Queue: 3 jobs
Job 1
Amino acid sequence: MTSKDYYKPKQEQIASLFAHNEAVGVVIEEQQYEVSCSFGDNSNDNGVYSAIQILVNLPAAFPEEAPVLTVSPTGMRHPWIESDVIVADALISWTYQSSLGMIVHSVCEEFRQHPPDKRNNGPEESYGHRPQPPIPSYSISTSSGTRPTSLPTTQTANSEYMAIMSKSPEELEELLSNETAFDIFFNDLDRVKNLKTVQDELQIGNENLAHKTLSQEDAVTKLRAEVQDLNTEYTALKSMFMEKERQQQEAFNRFSSSTVLTRLKAGVYESDDLSESVAQSFLEGSLDHGSFVKQFRELRKVYHLRASKLEKIQKDSLFFPS
């Protein structure tokens, strides 16, 4: 389901929170809301609170994922409260169709009917006024897809919250002031360990892929050399082909219809000129009668043969298609 698909149901759940509860404040829009449950009397004598603040934390996948409700002041005792986190049955059995507003309202009614008591001895009572909200959920995407095991649940967020709330004020101050201590604590969180595991797996996968690629370097080099040789051979054969094609075209040009017609016309004119030259020589007395008749007859014979062929060619559709 995309973020657009979540938007409308999420807005409806937030609207129900305001509809079923009176004192609702916005801490972070669409992420955190504060609901005040007051019991009429502002005093808290005999260890009983007269007002409780419920911090409603909406995870990124809400309403597919259940909301996390925490209480303030911290360090209260009640069957529905475990380490400042509300564990009502309606939240444990949360579904997409559950109503956030009605669940929060039922929690307030339960606290009004059975107000929580103070917890006498606990490190949480002396530090801070409100439990930390859970870390939003997320997913890890890799080159091969999304890892289905990397999506932290509300339980994971609560375990991280518990890891912080179990610290004494002195230990918390040490974490804030000592970078080494903070690094040790941070690196020991389950979610951080999971991320490092994923990082290590990705690194190993990348190294294996790099080794596999390098192992094929010799084969790729050999194939590249073969391709280069084939390209050289192709270039030489192409040059030979183009030369033979040029020679073939020249041969075709010698026997083209226009070339044959031009040469035949030239032959007709040549035969006619030669016969006229022989006749002129006879008239001038340069040739005797016998030589004239013999030469003139041969030249005119050639002339008429060429003229006949020329006429036939000009009428032939093979040479002059219509």
Job 2
Amino acid sequence: MSWHHRVWMYDRLNPTRGGIKPEFYDKVEDFIETISKLDVVKSEGKCRCPCVKCRCTNYKELNIIKMHLWEKGFMPNYWIWTEHGEIDDIGINQMGFNNCGEGGSGSGANVEECDMYDISWEDNSRRYHEMVFDSVGPEDPHVEAKNFFDLLEATQKPLWEGCVHSQLSIAVRMLCIKAEENQSQESFKQWATLIREIAPEGSAIPRDYYEAKKLVQNLGLKAIKIDCCSNNCMLYRKDDAALTSCKFCEAPRFKPISDGGCKSKRVPVRRMHYLPLIPRLRRLYASMSSAPHMTWHIKNQRDDGVMIHPSHGEAWKSFDRIHSDFALEPRNIRLGLCSNGFTPNIQFSKPYSCWPVIVIPYNLPPGMCMKDPYLFLTCLIPGPNNPKANIDVFLGPLIDELNELWNPGVLTYDIVEKKNFVLKAALM
């Protein structure tokens, strides 16, 4: 049986625009339709799931198999569907083609690279990796990553059979509509109740704003609110968290309490928002949409004098020479940082500006690293005035995380390699 028509199995992700290729969606649908005719599916409604995680060891319903394949990709070397009714009549896995599509990363399978008579250095490296991987086996994710994967799998189940939305996707969609339309919590609850009445009984649609927000917050990407001095002198954090006035200019931390006010509800004069960076860098290696592309910079080096990516510049190469230990791990992340003023309410007569601080992971290909999903908002510095020279005060939480990422690093689970590793990052 020829395998060339199944190159699509390991060509899942679009390396330039990001996301899953439409052809992969269609081919997975064809695969599901094919296996739906199996006797085991007709009798039990389940069969073996060939995704990277299940590896044909777990029996799943067809809609779950479809979602697993879209999210994770096919298990390595599954050119012949032996667990789904096909017969391996030519022993293809013994003929040297087992390098293609390693890990189901979807980075693109090149048939010419799989020629058994013209094996490149990269092919030999991959074969060696597979030998080690097969002998040692995959590692379990660390506790935090495992909790995330378990939660994500639970919330990705369809609301009911045949529904295109999961519990997570409907919650995110509802919260987006609430924010865009400036709806009240009571309005949110009323139309959430209406949707629940229309949907089949037992669907996991959030009942109210609190339930939807709690579901999304459980994913771990939380914003931290930090009180700050009205004159940009300091942040009330760490050893200064209990202060009630600025230790430099003595400006009050809280607004005056009105008559009859409750002391437990004191309102700060000024507050910034900080979105932790480390959890989002970890998620880059927890998603098959980004993890296979995080080593693009090491696989696409060039010395022809043309610079299409920061990794081709002299600054990047000089950094690698100086910090050779950091450069030895290609999964370590190089970051860029930028900030600019932003006026959220231009229609108001009273001018107001805030300053978002954005961090960019440069490991990704040129077509991905500057796309919105990978522009990480970290600090949202409040206005109305430009922080100017005092911007470093507001960067304190980010600097702390960058120091931790530089040394000692953070334990991270790589979904492609199925291994835990110590992730480090540097601001270029």
Job 3
Amino acid sequence: MRATGRCLRHMFPCLVQMQPGSYLLTVHAKPGARASAFTPPLSPTATVADLRIAAPPVDGQANEELLRYLDELVERGLRAMAMNHEEYVKGTCYAAVVAADAAASAAAPTTPLESGSGGVRKKAAAKKASSTGAAPAATTASTRNALPTRLEIRLVRGSSSREKTLLLLCPCTRAQLAAVLERESRE
């Protein structure tokens, strides 16, 4: 999964992870549209997410509509992803990277531990990890517990300009959130 992490980290530079479950999304808002939508659909190289907002730029109406629209969009996407993960991410960059990583992992030959000094170090590290009680499953569970329990979106910067920064507190990983934004921006 190393390749997956590296590839996904460089995709969607408009979405930055601050800590588990906390993300900053850079948006270029265009108020006064007929309907709220991404323009064009979000791509993996986008440094800013372009959004049309169905509200006038008066008295914070566009900001309220932006937050409402993104909240609805992300919540709908996460619900759909939870129902059928593989079908939902099909056709997204997330699915392509995960598939490539799985193919590379399957093609990589597995070698047994050698009895040289490298094998001793690996065995010592494994013994140390088991003596401290650290297990990979426990790490995954603690990461899940660190994620927020509900979705929350706040405006951090740009209340009176078109360039905005939003804070998304979301019970998902960055890769899942990027897949949701990419998929929902196409619809």
